[in-house]
Amino acid sequence: MEVQQYPVVLKGGPVIMTACINPGKTRHAVFLHGLGASPRAMYPFLEYVAVKEGVTIIAPRLPCHGKSDDVDTADEFIARLGEWGEAVGLSGDLVVGHSLGALVLPHIAKRFPNQIGAGICLALPTEPLSGRLDLYRRLVHVGTDVTITTSVALIEAFRYGDGPRFSRAVQSTASEGFRLRQMMKVLQGLSDVELVLDGLDIPIALMWGERDSATPPQTERLDHPIVLPGQHHCFLMLREDWEPIRAEFHAKLEYLSPSQSATAS
Questions:
Q1: Distance (Å, whole) CA 120 – CA 61
Q2: 170 exposure class (CB count in 10 Å sphere: 0-12, 13-18, 19+)
Q3: How far is Cα 92 from Cα 43, in angstroms, rounded to an integer?
Q4: How far is C-alpha 99 from the geometric centre of its chain's CA atoms?
Q5: How far apart are CA 45 and CA 23, in angstroms?
Q6: Helices within 89-204 (DSSP H only)
Q7: In angstroms, rounded to a whole number, what is the distance separating the alpha carbons of residues 177 and 7?
Q8: What is the largest CA-CA distance in the chain?
Q9: For 26, how many CA atoms within 13 A lie in the half-sphere containing its CB?
Q10: Do 33 and 39 form a contact (C-beta atoms < 8 A)?
Q11: What's the burial of 139, exposed, middle or buried (CB within 10 Å: 0-12/13-18/19+)?
Q12: d(CA 26, CA 236)
């Protein structure tokens, strides 16, 4: 499948590296990756959804990650992603976020209400950070989860014939890295995501692993949360869990534009 990578240069010069998966389709959706991750490490899943639903998926490398430029505050982080959305022409689109991507999705929808028409939050962390030690504690937990999940995902990738490509993508993600100091400022500066969620009028689906340390929001306004039995934080990388996500993806496309979204196979 064709994957294009290019920098999106915003007003004033900041750059957001961007991946375009399955380009040229009438419909498109956006994917926001997690802390320390990248769209490259999620290519197998993103390509699966792009083919199944007949859509183009646009995925930015978040600020303070890889070759995307840095920001110093949560406000700048959300503003930078909103500026990116304006640059690529988002208007009432489907946005899917995992972990950090899921955390910032509601904030973007609140600040730039015309960009997001529906959302899917995967492994959304709702408990605010209490400080640096709390962040390190969470990073250790998620890092262990990532290590185990990536190992299983790599075995699956080789089984399905795309092992070398997946391995290169993971290595690239690790080598490019992210800037922890800047991201800690961003995370500590974000307002309570549960309050933001309650103030939104768009449909947002929630999905998390049964064993995930991330806690689901305590709100009744959202779509009912979907639990993946036995799974941890990084279930998105595992092929056995792709279909529930794809089904939500399809449902949200149908909500936004039934006549344009593809029929799921």
A1: 18
A2: buried
A3: 24
A4: 7
A5: 16
A6: 100-111, 132-159, 163-176, 180-189, 193-198
A7: 17
A8: 49
A9: 9
A10: yes
A11: middle
A12: 25
Question: What are the distances in angstroms from CA 251 to CA 23, 87, 96?
Answer: 21, 27, 13
Identify the H or E element spanning 119.
Answer: strand 116-122
Averages of pLDDT over each 10 residues, the chain, 265 residues: 92 96 94 92 92 96 96 96 97 96 96 96 81 74 82 89 88 87 90 88 90 66 75 88 93 80 38
**Of residues 94, 31, 26, the one with CA closest to residue 59:** 31
How deeply is 180 buried, as exposed, middle or buried, from its count of CB atoms within 10 A (0-12, 13-18, 19+)?
middle
Q: Residues 151, 170: contact at Cβ < 8 Å?
A: no
Q: Which of 101, 100, 119, 99 is nearest to 109 (CA)?
A: 119
**Among 128, 81, 88, which Cα is nearest to 108's?**
81
- Closest CA relative to residue 132, chosen from 174, 183, 179, 177: 183
pTM here is: 0.91
User: Token digits for 177?
Assistant: 């890295």
